[in-house]
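INPUT
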Amino acid sequence: MQFWPLMKNTFLLCIIGFVIGFPLPIIISLMLNAMKSKKMSKVLQTIFNGPHFISLVVLVGMLTLFFGRYGLVNNIAAHFGGERVSYFLESSAFRPLYILSSNWQDFGWSAIIYIAALSNVDLGQHEAAILDGASRFQRVIHVDLPAIMPMISVMLIMSIGGLMGVGYEKALLMQTDGNLGVSELIATYVYKQGLTGVPNQSYATAIGLFNSVINVVLLIIANTTSKKFSENSLW
Amino acid sequence: MASLTLKDIKKVYPNSEEKKSKKKKKGDEPEKQKANLQITEEGVVAVQQFSLDIADKEFIVLVGPSGCGKSTTLRMIAGLEEISSGELYIGDRLVNDVAPKDRDIAMVFQSYALYPHMTVYDNMAFSLKLKKTPKAEIDKKVREAAEILDITQYLDRKPKALSGGQRQRVAIGRAIVREPKVLLMDEPLSNLDAKLRNQMRAEIIKLRQKINTTFIYVTHDQTEAMTLGDRIVIMRDGFIQQIGTPQEVFNHPINLFVAGFIGTPQMNFFENCALTVDGGKYSVEVLGKKIALTDGQNKALAAKGQKACSVTLGIRPVHMQLDEGGFTGKIDVSEMMGSELHLHMNVQGNDVVAVIPTAGLDVSAHSIGKSVNFSFNPALAHLFGADGKNLL
Ligand SMILES: Nc1ncnc2c1ncn2[C@@H]1O[C@H](COP(=O)(O)OP(=O)(O)OP(=O)(O)O)[C@@H](O)[C@H]1O
Ligand SMILES: [Mg+2]
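OUTPUT
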């Protein structure tokens, strides 16, 4: 496979995943924190953490159960007279399945760090805002969000730094001949080149190294930008 | 600018769920005392039987030891805590169920509670912005308030870059830009050092001249209470003990608690003094000496039909003087305060404090271990019955 398609596949998968996956835990944590019933909020938080503990193999297994040719979604569609679709053979379905399942698995877990930060927000500020006439939503925007902003900056820098660092396991598990065009990533390609068939380790190492260089560059750019525009940075 | 009426206000903090279930299991007695607060079936009673009429533009100070329910009362007025029972009127309007923002009140918090990401200007403008006040008007009001509080030069700074005193000014500024009918303050000065506290206290007195608002001020510092308040409300364990002007509570404390709480150093108490009456003339025996009471005191006691009994006599340290013919004590500690000398003495097993002016006094003659003679004017003594109530 050519280098640029690999690069493009990796980049698109990561950037879309990031755009959806980064704000999601922030929104979830703000919502959980603003809930009136603290008990309900705790219960929800626990439920949201559950998927994090599912192993990748089981997760992909679940995806097949739901989206396979004879899986739940297709069964329902067939019941209403729809046509069965082999989602795992469709290259257009790979990215949505990959990204949504990843986000479903990790949004609750990633929210923990924000929830912890939110629990430190001075209650007095909320009370002052109540007296100032702020609604619940306005308090989230003007009190809670600024309070976790430093945390958001740090997480942002770190996620951008690891943006291209997608693992090969899940993509490999979801890979079929049908979606190879979009599911072949730098990581899976390096794995195949370096460890399977007739190993071509020097080539694989070069590509892997290139990926890491991109990550380092991204990290430096993100950190410098953040330093310039806010008071937060990793170094 | 509004009068305030509190009618039999009560606050019960409900027990948390687990406590409730534990209690049911044990099935123990419904009422018990914990840290002097009443604990009932429903929960902790933090404030009860709180009735008070506050006049327009009055400066009321709530004072009392820690945990007596001052903040709770203030927070109920602000609407941050629900009122368990009783009625709260601001002006003529019953506001028990009115949202805090519609009560036309503002509050200054002990911890300042400024928004850290906003500049001083934005902090002060925030409530006006939420009310959709026109920009020009916001600007005018913020600058006016900043002028009053002398913080104009800090308007562009963030709270982080301000000192404690400056932050407190901003917090006050944020409250007064809204021109509230009632301004609530919960220990606004207790995070400041002593010198700054005195300075800010003076500022608050000045502020009062400049803005027409009813003030309710919470403190546990009695100097603040005495200097700021038109009237002082002294609280203890959720109950009001006494309401009165600073002079009233100082000169006529209603009971032992108020007598001990107001005034530094604390009033001296001599317990188990025999009050005797002989032909309408009362006298009290203190430290083995019989002291005749004054005519005024006799009248007051006679009017009540007071019989001979055992009383506690209270006398303020500032009302004691050196007197060769008086009681003899041994000096334990001698504190030179500059204009006055605080003598901590042991008199027949009682700890007694006297405040003696140093003008014309040989201070070195009153060092530790020396003996000293003192007396007091019986007209300034207070007598408390067995129930702690002031008899005079
Ligand atoms: N949320 C709560 N739940 C249960 N009890 C509470 C709660 N808040 C306060 N209390 C109790 O109510 C009583 C009065 O509290 P409050 O904060 O009004 O005291 P305070 O007079 O302001 O004391 P301080 O001078 O220390 O601020 C305290 O004994 C406290 O333990
Ligand atoms: Mg308090």
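end of record. Chain A touches chain B at residues 122, 124-125, 127-134, 138, 142-143, 146-147, 149 (CB under 8 Å).
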